[in-house]
Design brief:
By secondary structure, the chain is α/β, with parallel strands linked by helices. The protein is built from twelve helices and twelve strands. A hairpin with a 6-residue loop joins β1 and β2.
């Protein structure tokens, strides 16, 4: 699809993607509390109409439900209006969405891919990623399988998610790791230390997840909101949403408000633009459960922070003690 938003080269894939992509984990519904499918599809349509040209999901999100919702939403769009579709395989949960297992065995992964193709209602997936290092197969086995899937034409590009630089190097020795999907945010900064430099050196495109740290960096999260979250919302059990860590994270988010006001935008957009400023990062995956949430961060697709903004944020990170990892690029 064509877009009026700025794009970046996605590693060596030949794809040009917007700095923001739609994240569809919450659309699966099982770990974020109840979610209305109509609202999910409205969010997808609104993001596409706003210029976002890619969407990221996974087979495990809602045990396939997220992919099914995306498939239904995209089926209603003309072919030239459809975004790139990225998904992931390699994790299986039970019927309740619990007890995850990391499975990279050849036949299982191939069946997962076939199931994803059916749910997404596409003949080829633009990017297929291995969600986590497997517990039942060595890296060399599952990466060889991923490379074969590309060679067979079932997927256009292949990448990894949640792999460290040592694992990336082992995979790269067999065949190019086209993309990586790691966690990265103003709070969770460890990826900037070694992984982003490795990817930049090897031409591996990087799309990070949780760039707003599951809502902590939106400027609208409060301790009261956290306390009121439903029991089946995974965030209630996350250390970043508890005690001193929560207090430090909220203080960091508060420190972004003057920068947001300076640029006439939202705290969410500042948090995303901060990620985009790091060398080696291509784009951010941003969750949306409604069109209104898309409007809260769409400015980040073109927002550029200046050197002064970056320094103010680095000092705020150091002052609050929020998160871990480098505060400056």
């Amino acid at each position: 699809m064509k877009t009026h938003l700025p794009t970046r080269a996605f590693g060596k894939t030949g794809l040009q993607i917007t700095k923001l992509g739609i994240g569809a984990w919450a659309m699966g519904g099982n770990m974020w509390g109840p979610q209305d499918d109509a609202e999910s599809m409205a969010a997808i349509r609104h993001a596409i109409e706003s210029g976002i040209n890619w969407i990221d999901t996974a087979a495990v999100y809602g045990n396939g439900h997220s992919e099914a919702v995306i498939g239904e939403a995209l089926a209603r769009l003309p072919a030239d209006k459809r975004p790139l579709v990225f998904t992931k395989g390699g994790i299986v949960r039970d019927e309740k969405g619990e007890n995850p297992r990391r499975i990279g065995e050849r036949n299982h992964l191939r069946q997962e891919l076939e199931n994803s193709l059916k749910r997404l209602k596409v003949e080829v997936i633009d990017l297929y990623q291995l969600h986590w290092p497997s517990d039942d197969a060595p890296l060399e086995e599952y990466w060889a399988n991923m490379l074969e899937l590309k060679a067979e034409g079932k997927v256009r590009h292949v990448g990894l998610s949640n792999h460290n630089e040592e694992q990336l190097a082992r995979a790269e020795a067999m065949g190019h790791v086209e993309t990586l999907q790691p966690p990265f945010s103003m709070i969770r900064r460890e990826t900037a230390a070694k992984i982003l430099p490795w990817c930049a050196e090897h031409g591996t495109g990087v799309i990070c997840y949780s760039p707003m740290q599951a809502g902590l960096l939106t400027g609208t999260m409060t301790a009261e909101r956290v306390a009121a979250m439903p029991d089946n919302d995974w965030r209630k059990g996350s250390p970043e949403f508890q005690g001193d860590k929560l207090a430090a994270n909220l203080k960091l988010a508060e420190s972004l408000k003057p920068i947001a006001q300076k640029h006439g935008t939202s705290v969410s957009s500042v948090a995303l633009a901060w990620c985009h400023a790091w060398p080696g990062l291509t784009g951010t995956i941003v969750g949306a459960r409604s069109p209104a949430q898309v409007d809260g961060w769409i400015d980040a697709a073109s927002l550029e922070l200046d050197a002064g903004d970056i320094e103010v944020i680095a000092k705020a990170i150091e002052a609050t003690g929020a998160g871990q990892g480098p505060a400056r690029g």
